[in-house]
What we know:
The chain is 28% helix and 42% strand. The protein has helices at 2-21, 39-46, 165-188; strands at residues 27-35, 59-65, 73-78, 83-92, 97-105, 107-113, 116-121, 125-137, 140-151. The chain starts with a helix and ends with a helix.
Amino acid sequence: xxxxxxxxxxxxxxxxxxxxxxxxxxxxxxxxxxxxxxxxxxxxxxxxxxxxxxxxxxxxxxxxxxxxxxxxxxxxxxxxxxxxxxxxxxxxxxxxxxxxxxxxxxxxxxxxxxxxxxxxxxxxxxxxxxxxxxxxxxxxxxxxxxxxxxxxxxxxxxxxxxxxxxxxxxxxxxxxxxxxxxxxxxxxx
Length: 189
């Protein structure tokens, strides 16, 4: 009985350490839009990895190499002059889908976490992967933009507001929504 009690007490002392050792959880955002156009027209607007600036209002330019080949890279310049570098990981013209990852981002500031300064990336996320998919849905076309990522600060200290889950999720939702809404407007008008 003493051994069982000792085990329970030890477990209770270790539980908080295990909870805090876990770190950040993976987050996910998925946004969609229905566009009054055929799938081929919509795919032709979004498929080129080097042309995000043509339909996303926050992107002022795209510098790219590699076209739509897996391994192609692009550096996006945002309207605040921050940059994001991404790599194309998958491209399937037949399924009208591609997947890309963020490799690096410029910093838009710093924040103090437990006495140590940390960069605030252009988009407050880390380990970001995203998919863009176009599919016919009746006489419309559905575009889905899905991302899986972690918040900007993945350490075990208390994360600052600038790098927490809510800020990361809101940023990606805003980016996706403004891009998809602009895409719809450009194609339908």
